[in-house]
Amino acid sequence: MRIGLQIPVFKWPGGDAALGATLARIGRDAEAAGFYSLWVMDHFFQIQMGGPPEDPMLEGYTALGYLAGATSKVKLGTMVTGVTYRYPGLLVKTVTTLDVVSGGRAYFGVGAAWNEEEHKGLGVPFPPLKERFERLEDVLQLAHQMWSGEVAPFDGKHAHLERALNQPLPVSKPHPPILIGGTGEQKTLRLVAKYADACNLFLRMGDEVLHHKLDVLRQHCTDLNRPYSDIEKTSLDSFVVGSGDQALSGQQLVDYFGHVAELGFDQAIFSLRNVAQPGVFDELAKIRSQIEAIAPGGRK
Q: For the segment 204-253, what is each residue's pLDDT rounded down to a tens digit?
């Protein structure tokens, strides 16, 4: 079983002046504790689940580049990039750069975007949902082309590139794994089956809904003649580790990750509400071998 750390909140002790140093420490400590991946949200404003819009929010790829320099093994990705935030060719180039400078550690997390407030706030166009999904499919097709090394025009529904040149190519082979975020059954999960290497589902939806969503993905894979086992299934959750009434520790954590695997997931990604607390990863480091021994369920 793999575990990943999402970092969605940057309001930490020491304020903005200490933010960079704290982020680097969290990245190094998570890597040392055995985390497989590190993720940041790709938002310009803080979102409601994390705090008011005025709370600190780092630009995603700058933050990941910084974490790439602070770490050496852990995978790095956004959970997830809104397809509207950057021009398609520049977005693929940005993810490629992260992969190259990190030595092949990038994920490409992407989705159809949803936060209208930050679009309007910073002057980013926010097209209707149908168009956003069309733009998402454009980017997925373009990423596959640019990462193949094919230098040719690209003519999608909305993206039009005269010369899709991308040098250097990614270090990851055949390319950085593409993770599509979202739970929509007709569009999102079908795009996962058609273009992606990974999906992400919220554990808060509950076991019954999660089983249904994975069954829908399995059917899309069957319809497209793609092995379901090709797709890495990742979950997303949030909790506290350590001591206290609401904190998980020891065998509770082992049982938690065992349950995530039984649901059908390969990687449990989660945020820690006390992530900036020194020593917060010690509890996870103690059970590292037990977590690694859990058989992932997403290969079934």
A: 999 999 999 999 999 999 999 999 999 999 999 999 998 777 888 889 99
Name the H helices within the chain. 19-32, 60-70, 88-101, 116-122, 129-148, 188-195, 207-223, 251-263, 282-286, 288-292
- Residue 259 — φ and ψ, nearest 5°? -70, -40
d(CA 124, CA 87): 11
How far out from the chain centre does Cα 204 lie? 17
Q: Measure the CA–CA gap between 152 and 235, rounded to whole angstroms.
A: 36
> Percent of the chain at pLDDT above 90?
94
- How high is the pLDDT of residue 298? 73
Instruction: From residue 123, give the alpha-carbon distance in Å to each of 84, 133, 163.
Output: 11, 20, 27
Place of tokens 């180039």: 93
pTM score of the predicted model: 0.95
Q: Which among 256, 270, 255, 267 is positioned nearest to 296, based on CA atoms?
A: 267
Tell me how far apart the alpha carbons of residues 122 and 40 are, in angstroms, rounded to a whole number.
Answer: 20
Please compute, for residue 56, the number of CA atoms within 13 A of its CA located in the half-sphere on the CB side: 17
As beta bridge partners, residue 247 has 240
Closest CA to 40 of 25, 27, 51, 53: 27
Total number of residues shown for the chain: 300
Q: Set out the domains of the chain in order of their start, with CATH numbers.
A: 2-292 (3.20.20.30)
Nearest to 40 by CA among 63, 68, 69: 63
